[in-house]
Amino acid sequence: MQSLADLEAALQAPDKPFDQWQPQNCGQVPILIDVQGRWFYAGSEIKREAMVKLFASVLCKEAGSYFLKTPVEKMAITVEDVPFIIVDWRFEETEQGLALCCVDNLQRAWLVSAKQPLLLREFEGVSVPYLQLAHGLAARVSRNVYYQWAEIACSDEQGYYIESLAKRYYLA
User: Fold this and answer.
1) CA quadruple 133, 138, 143, 147: dihedral positive or negative?
2) Which residue from 167, 61, 158, 160 is spatially nearest to 117, judged by alpha carbons?
3) InterPro entries this protein is in (predicted)?
4) What does the alpha-carbon distance between residue 75 and residue 114 come to, in Å, rounded to a whole number?
5) Where residue 50 falls among pLDDT bands split at 50, 70, 90?
6) More confident residue, 112 or 24
7) Residue 150 DSSP one-character state
8) In what order do the strands lie in the sheet with 65-69?
9) Residue 124, exposed/middle/buried by CB under 10 A (0-12, 13-18, 19+)?
10) CA separation (Å) from 7 to 23, 33, 63, 110, 119?
């Protein structure tokens, strides 16, 4: 059985030092991320996953706006809701207990934890769980994953929840 620290290290990609980068704002680039997490450049969908992953690796949210940020430039992009969608999940057994591991639409795995909690937000008039990520980013839980969680959810006086690392995350 692995430790939580080992699991986190295995799942995390090297983090960009966004706080240290202070590039000049270069304006807007015609990139749009739609509500389904699809990326478009000037109206054409970017189909190359490697290209989307590269852009996603330099994506951050600052002061309510999304940017592609490097050490030398910072370009605003448009995001209709959030940039990522949780499309799959699994439990990982750790020394600290079961950890909920979420997989996004770019096949990246994220651990639900105090650092990356599930938070409820409104989406299309319904309260939906979102996974809070680093650098102001978030991933919306897909309807399919939400229904899978609903089938295994526990309940208490506050409502239905799913647990990760012995912490409760409410689904509605």
Assistant:
1) positive
2) 167
3) DUF1285_beta_roll_sf (IPR023361), DUF1285_C (IPR048342), DUF1285_N (IPR048341)
4) 30
5) very high
6) 112
7) H
8) 44-45, 39-41, 24-33, 73-79, 65-69, 59-62
9) exposed
10) 33, 29, 31, 10, 22
Which residues does 3 contact at the CB level (< 8 Å), separation at least 6?
94, 95, 96
Q: What are phi and psi of 81, to 5 degrees?
A: -135, -85
Which two tokens mark 29?
Answer: 């680039």
Distance of CA 45 to the CA centre of its chain: 20
Q: Which helix (H) or strand (E) holds 102?
A: strand 97-104
* 63: number of Cβ within 10 Å: 6
Structure-block tokens of residue 144: 């399919």
Residue 4, token pair as written in the block: 């939580």
Tokens found for residue 82: 């959030």
